[in-house]
Fold this protein.
Amino acid sequence: MENNSLNKNEYEDLSKLINITIKIVNLYNKLYQLELNEKKHTKEYNLFVSKLKQCLTIENNIYNQIMRNLEENKKIIYYLTEKYNKELIHQNYSNQLLKLDEMMIITRIISKLSRNFMNNFDKTLSQEKAQLYHSIYNSIKTKNIIFVDIVKCFLPIVSEITEKQSDLNITKYLKKIKYATSCIYQEIEKEMIISNFEINKNPYISYKFFGQMNGWPLELINEVTKVYCIEFYTNILNSMLVYDDKDLLDKSIMAEMLINQSFLRAIYLLLDDETIMDLNSEFHDLIDDDDYQSILNNREIVIDLIIKSYKKVKFDKSIPKIISLKL
């Protein structure tokens, strides 16, 4: 069995990572609280954005140092995933976006270390193995690009829902999402820092461009996108159907449901109309199926939230600016 314990230097590096990440998450929490108290466009808010930038520079330097030793990088990933195995397995993605807590700290560290490792692992391989690794890496990178594009579309949708939300107890949860999302995803964080945490209502998305740069035909790009989007769609749908209508009286759960609804709407923006119609038809077949009535009982509001996501497709189509080469 592989020894996942850390030596003194590795513990010190992990301690540096944890300490700076705690500061970063605390700054995100502070920015969220300021926006919640309608102090977003103030000197105080801008000061904390500046502090965040400083901490991100320090954090980046620590990761660059660790990156020089891939074995240390790998050991820290194993150590954290083993220590927080139960929490990571049972992590609810949509619920996580309502929190800036200890698991956000761990998630950010593991995510960044994993990116470090994936970006540099090929340097340790022979040319033949490196070629095989690049095929695997491109598959993983494709899935990540598609997911980040979904998140980019998700943010303006959830922002629109937040602006229209009359229940302030739900609004306070929804306003946290852009800070939590920025904290998790490096690509989102870069854009948020530049825009001073103003959400781009018409974001550029690049999944088609990435596929084209890899020489894939349009049919393959669409098929790969469809596979990954439907996988995420299924997970979101299942997480929504876990709750029944009485659960939605809890404001945090209702906020979670609106997050999930926003993700469904964002997913449709990467799919063709035929696929969206098929998913819609399959869902209606499900709710009409006698065998599922006992499961779907007392879920009228939940089902309505899902159905409304389909009805917004035409409205949402103007959101993304799709980067692509001429086909």
